[in-house]
From TrEMBL:
The lineage of its organism: Bacteria, Bacillati, Actinomycetota, Actinomycetes, Micrococcales. One of its GO terms (biological process) is xylulose catabolic process. This is Xylulose kinase. It comes from the Bacteria. Residues 7-221 form the Carbohydrate kinase FGGY N-terminal domain. It is an enzyme of class 2 (transferase).
Amino acid sequence: MTTPTLVAGIDSSTQSCKVVIREAESGALVRSGSAPHPAGTQVDPEAWWRALQVAVEQAGGLADVAAVSVGGQQHGMVTLDEQGRPIRPAMLWNDNSSGQAAADLVEELGAERWARETGTVPVASITATKLRWLAEHEPENAARVAAVCLPHDYLTWRLRGSTAIGDLVTDTSDASGTGYFDASRGAYRRELLRHAFGREDIVLPRVAAPTEAVGELATFSSRAVLGPGAGDNASAALALGLGPGDVLLSVGTSGVVCAVVADPVADLTGTVAGFADATGHYLPLVATVNCAQVLDATRSLLGVDVHQLADLALSVPAGSDGLTLVPYLQGERTPNLPNATGALHGITLENYTPAHLARAAFEAVVCGLGVGIDAVRAVGLEVGSVRMVGGAVRSPAMREIAPSVLGIDIALPEPGEYVADGAARQAAWVLASGAGPAELPNWSAPVGATATATPAPTVRAAYARAAPHYLDRQ
Ligand SMILES: Nc1ncnc2c1ncn2[C@@H]1O[C@H](COP(=O)(O)OP(=O)(O)O)[C@@H](O)[C@H]1O
Ligand SMILES: O=C(CO)[C@@H](O)[C@H](O)COP(=O)(O)O
């Protein structure tokens, strides 16, 4: 019997690093590993590298693997000096410090120009706004920046064993979230970088094609081929084989609504970001900052585990008997309210209970996704089949409450590591393309059982009334 060729996919996302090793031809899972990332919205990139090493060791190493790709949390800002050393902790996509910088950039050039030239109207998540923040708040650090890259670019580069900033490589899906890349032309817009940062004499990662081998591993006793990698949502879309009309919901650290489409999207309202996918198409996307961590915070407040939180939430009726949580615990990105705080509305003697609060937390994060679905429809995209993935989909409460609050049937693929799976599928594609153009490997796309909606439209109506009533952070 011949030994199957193996590929690895890595998901370096906000809260942890996950590694899957799969058979290149069939996609069958062979081994896996994971390791946590430090908490917080500013993280030393070296901590991602350490977590990756632990996760790879747990997955049995990469010595027998033929190709590797990295999927990673989108946006953020990794700044490197001439020697390739991080200048300061990376600012993550969910760090809202640059909220004012985002507002300034939109004011200076106009939402329409940003949307037309980059697909996206900047919010605090976008790299360009973080560079503006750095220039204004840390001019000494800004002056030392020789290269800026994204989390997945940094890890691909570390896997190559390089320290030369000229070797940095990215892909279109992640480049499209920087605020200085035009996905519709597949090219950087350095004039926007200069406008945001005051300089453009810095190295940006070369943007590789979707099936390009960008180098070889120089670590983990392996000479595996490296794929270009992808932003995490593009990577999950690749794993699930999203096609026209398919919508993906992700309930991880971020709440995400996205779809794969053939033509670029430019939403002048800034709600839908016109990102690229990892196959040469586009990935219009809406993201919230307050998703699984709102559930985590509620759980820790109530002193319960994930199972108890779900039991509590499902023990009270839809609408939590009038209790409505506005979940802006970390500010918010959609709607664009970087300084907002959360609020609890409709409190009565009857509903001021752990069970009602648990349900209100699930309903709040799902209502956030509802805002995203409305926005995706508003730019003319079809919402046909809907699939939900991400850490919080492991909760039976999420699986029951989401279809009901959104009023749509939702397919629930078996909970899994779809970002890492998409990266592994890309690695297999890169390997197959080594001998010439090849189709995306025909791995079976997980669909899963469909949760049928028992619509509870009053939940979104109550949320729409409550959401505008929040206080800004002092
Ligand atoms: N059974 C569960 N119920 C609720 N939340 C869960 C459950 N299992 C995992 N989570 C949450 O999922 C989140 C991690 O999701 P994940 O998609 O892995 O995050 P990310 O990729 O953004 O790092 C954590 O906040 C975790 O608490
Ligand atoms: O900013 C976005 C999308 O634009 C987020 O989706 C990040 O990519 C983080 O993803 P997770 O860690 O939640 O998977």
